[in-house]
Design brief:
Strand order of the largest sheet of chain B: 11-10-9-12-13
Radius of gyration of chain A: 13 Å
CATH topology of the largest domain in chain B: Aconitase, domain 3
Distance between the termini of chain B: 57 Å
Structural class of chain A: alpha/beta
Shape of chain A: globular
Oligomer: heterodimer
Number of helices of chain A: 4
Strand content of chain B: 5-15%
Helix content of chain A: 25-40%
Order of helices and strands of chain A: EEEEHEEHEHEHEE
Number of helices of chain B: 19
Strand order of the largest sheet of chain A: 1-10-9-3-5-7-8-2
């Protein structure tokens, strides 16, 4: 078990199973197909990301360096939150990028009762330690416990 | 964040609850990135990414309707990304059913919302809004609130405007408030290059492949590229701009690049030269072998990887007028060499409605039509973004389309042979 401390982008607590990508997470390529065609688990549809291809994203502890790709990324995340099919939390090893920040901030300001804690700056060690299937707990103060 | 009196009043609700929420969104966005203040949006027009009435995007249209109902229209008029559908593009009965009855059921409603919010005109649907024919071309130094990754990277790099990689919805928030938080690519420091790229290929590299390699390496950093000016020259003519359009789109979809500098070519590189490069920037050398490695790494997820292609898409991002003309010459020559009269695979070239209208005024349009090539204004990505297309072998020379769909990437040269001569 290890603990990591990051910066809180949107607050909250969560406990979920880790889905880990070491490359950039392409939000549109990964999530839109699942959201559009009724996949409640929102299995990752990004053919370019074999690490997490076909793994369920909804309700997961999504561990990533940053998001990449289309600027629809933020609104895809916003829609996932509105449909309550978002990851349980998003945990960034690096500083959050503008698209993921937009998605989580839009959901936090414009949607009622949606919680998706987002923590960034967890460090490279976090992404080296966490593996698919581990249990991840996000605490109120931004501490992330991986076991 | 330091706010002016006007910005603070907006945040405090003097101009209504919805505008206050818009400002709150922008303040939170800026504070996340350490912005100390906001700057006024100075471009004449905005550009928004969400052009499609996808049923799944209903939460977005609900938000847009709230903006309409509360009378907080954009301060600027705007262009949009391309429409998702065009009856000229080949589609099966089942595809048409899925498109019209299941996927894009919100299209008409959404376009009415856009008109109320400030759409430039009914044909302002393209990802290449910066083309002269379209008319949304910012000036050097303009501050933008744009989205659309390929347009943002072009505006920053080729036009010298200043824009962060804003998400959809965040784009219109800046336009409504009239301000954007001052961070990242809006600042001099954020525009400095943090990577050095040395292009050492034996011939002019494929724009999409080179952009893909750089995007995957530098992610969201700013690259300073040496070695391209030997192929593109030192003036931003039509051919150079077209190359950089496709190059940039690949850096932004295979990575998250929002700005690049090309030595002795792009405006800030010409103005400041190597002073733009930050101390300690790592070097990435790209030669023929590296480009081949990148190309070989692309997965082919067709059910039968050796299937004969059923459709070819060119124009993601939308083609320029120069590209439509040069490809007309290439297709004609290819067909002549192969002994064919028309393309042997249904082929669609996509471009902005205004570019297509200009193309129609040239003698090239009839020649391209005679070759059997279809022209359209749609977004190939939106056409292909459904499970039916997964079983359809589509080829493209767009790295962006390859990234988001099951389309298989071929170089421009390979595409030309495949559509004029045939093959797998």
């Amino acid at each position: 078990m290890r603990k990591f401390k990051g910066r809180i982008i949107t607050p909250g607590t969560a406990k979920a199973t880790a889905v880990v990508t070491h490359g950039g997470f392409n939000t549109l390529a990964s999530m839109q197909m699942g959201l559009q065609f009724g996949d409640k688990q929102v299995k990752c549809s990004d053919q370019s990301n074999p690490e997490i291809y076909k793994l369920p994203l909804a309700g997961s502890a999504l561990c990533l360096p940053q998001t990449i790709g289309s600027t629809t990324g933020g609104l895809v995340l916003y829609c996932a939150c509105a449909m309550e099919r978002q990851p349980a939390c998003m945990l960034f090893s690096k500083s959050i990028d503008s698209l993921a920040a937009a998605g989580s901030i839009l959901a936090s300001v414009w949607l009622d009762g949606i919680k998706m804690p987002v923590i960034d700056n967890l460090g490279d060690e976090f992404l080296e330690y966490v593996k698919n299937g581990m249990t991840v707990t996000v605490e109120e103060d931004g501490t992330v416990v991986v076991e | 964040m330091r706010l002016t009196a006007h910005q603070q009043e907006m945040l405090d609700g003097k101009y209504g609850e919805t505008k206050a929420k818009v400002m709150k969104t922008l303040v939170m966005y800026g504070e996340t990135f350490g912005a100390e203040d906001m700057v006024a949006v100075t471009s004449e027009y905005n550009h928004l990414v969400t052009s499609f009435g996808l049923k799944v995007m209903s939460p977005v249209y609900d938000l847009m309707q709230r903006l309409v109902d509360d009378g907080v229209a954009s301060e600027q008029k705007f262009s949009m990304d391309p429409r998702p559908l065009d009856k000229n593009v080949p589609a099966s009965f089942l595809q048409n059913f899925v498109f019209n009855k299941f996927m894009y059921t919100k299209q008409d409603t959404y376009e009415k919302q856009l008109e109320k919010l400030g759409l430039m005109n009914k044909d302002a649907f393209t990802c290449t809004c910066y083309m002269d024919e379209v008319g949304n071309k910012p000036k050097m130094g303009d501050i933008l609130s744009w989205s659309e990754s390929s347009a943002v990277v072009y505006a920053n790099s080729v036009l010298g405007a200043r824009c962060n990689r804003n998400s959809g919805i965040m784009d219109i928030m800046g336009s409504i408030a009239g301000y954007v938080p001052n961070f990242g690519l809006l600042t001099d420091e954020g525009r400095r290059a943090t990577w050095i790229i040395k292009v050492e290929t034996t011939k002019k590299p494929d724009a999409q492949l080179l952009g893909s390699a750089i995007g995957m390496k530098v992610m969201e950093d700013v690259p300073y590229v040496y070695g391209l000016n030997q192929y593109l020259g030192s003036e931003l003519d039509d051919a150079a701009c077209t190359y950089l359009k496709d190059f940039g789109a690949a850096t932004a979809s295979n990575g998250a690049v929002g700005l690049y500098h090309i030595h002795d070519l792009t405006p800030e590189a010409k103005l400041h030269g190597e002073k733009l490069i930050a101390e300690g920037a790592p070097v990435y050398v790209i030669d023929d072998a590296e480009l081949q490695r990148v190309k070989d790494s692309y997965p082919v997820i067709w059910k039968n990887p050796d299937a004969t292609p059923k459709l070819c898409f060119m124009g993601c991002p939308h083609m320029s007028l120069e590209q439509l003309k040069s490809w007309t010459d290439k297709v004609e020559a290819g067909l002549k060499a192969a002994g064919n009269k028309e393309v042997v695979i249904p082929t669609v070239f996509t471009a902005a409605p205004a570019v297509l209208a200009e193309f129609e005024r040239t003698e090239y349009a009839a020649r391209l039509k005679k070759c059997g090539v279809i022209t359209s204004y749609i977004c190939p990505l939106m056409y292909m973004n459904n499970p039916l297309c997964k079983t359809m072998p589509v080829i493209t020379s767009s790295n962006k389309l390859r990234t988001y769909t099951s389309a298989k990437y071929l170089s421009d040269d390979e595409i030309l042979v495949t559509i004029t001569k045939g093959g797998k």
